[in-house]
Amino acid sequence: MKDKNFIQDFGLFASLVVSMIGIGVFYSPALVAKYVGADGWIVAIITAAGIFLIMYMMYYLMKANNYEDIVVILGNIYGVALGRIISILYAIMMILALGISLRVFSEVITMFLLVNTPTEVILITMIFLGIFLSRGGLVNVVNFNELAFWMIFIPAILAFLLTLPTADFTNLLPVFSTVPVNYFKGSFELLFLLNGFSMAFILIPYVKKKERIGKILRRSSIFIGAFYGVTFILVAATLSVAQTRDTIFPTITMIQSITSRAGFLERWDSLIMAIWVIFYFTAFANTYYFSSYIAKHVFNLKDIKIASVIFLPVVYIAALFPESVVDVRNLKMGFIRMGFIGTLFVVIGITFLLSYIRKGRGVKNEN
């Protein structure tokens, strides 16, 4: 990266969006429906606001520290040793969350595309593809994200449009049908699925027009909220709330209904599934690159190619840890969620607060 500031506006926007959406769009309608019924779109709005707040705190943290590397920032605030420990724990939690999502992805593929393919083969293939893209560096990752954005969302929007003729939007009534706390519980679950926003730590220092970062973060948050909101609305309107709640992958079931209603779209669901492979791979590769990047700087490795191999066994074991995808759906992997949120609270919340206090003291001393 001879030119450090090489990421254009669209590169940052596309990278954040594809890093966050991933596999969660397949089964998040079922998770959210358990808490709020048909009001999933409200959860999407709350989560989008939360993501923007988190990313803006990340942006402030980077800006206040002259866009230094996140490992350097944590070292400056907590001390080198503790900063590196926090950094590697953050990377490990991201890898564990990635392993869980990889297991869900492999289950989707074996159920709908590669029925006779062992899960282990899919896991290993995806991991090595992620390592391959990570070894190319951030420039290649961003370029791939820009291409993948269009390959993902054009067919997705087409699929949404094809569900409209038979969607029954009365399924969404009544609105605000549950207690307020359930909306925040649903947002917590959705936030865990959208953990790709951590890529902002890697991307922001390399953005060319840094004065536009705040606007891009807002636009990406709005896009994420709108996409998930529309997904929740169409799934509930097409399948009903009860079916959404009881189906493991309601979004795929909704897409399959297009094929059953329109003979000229034979095997349309398989085409969509092939596109979603790119969707998940993009999110997977970005998260894997993030953890490899952190490991490279924590252990002072010369090349990210070495760092990318470190997490290979970790993500593989994490993917095999759940007994089935039902364990993931039924929230039996809650300890990973809590660990991720706890790490996020330290890396972003407490670090932001300490940085803000330190900057305020610096201003007072200058005066």
UniProtKB/TrEMBL annotation:
Keywords: Germination, Membrane, Transmembrane, Transmembrane helix, Transport
Transmembrane segment boundaries: 12-35, 41-61, 73-102, 108-135, 147-167, 187-208, 220-242, 271-291, 303-322, 334-357
Membrane topology: Multi-pass membrane protein
Keyword Isomerase: no
Source superkingdom: Bacteria
Location relative to the cell: Membrane
InterPro entries in UniProt: Spore_GerAB (IPR004761)
Similarity comment text for this entry: Belongs to the amino acid-polyamine-organocation (APC) superfamily. Spore germination protein (SGP) (TC 2.A.3.9) family.
Name recorded for this polypeptide: Spore germination protein AB
Organism listed in the record: Clostridium punense
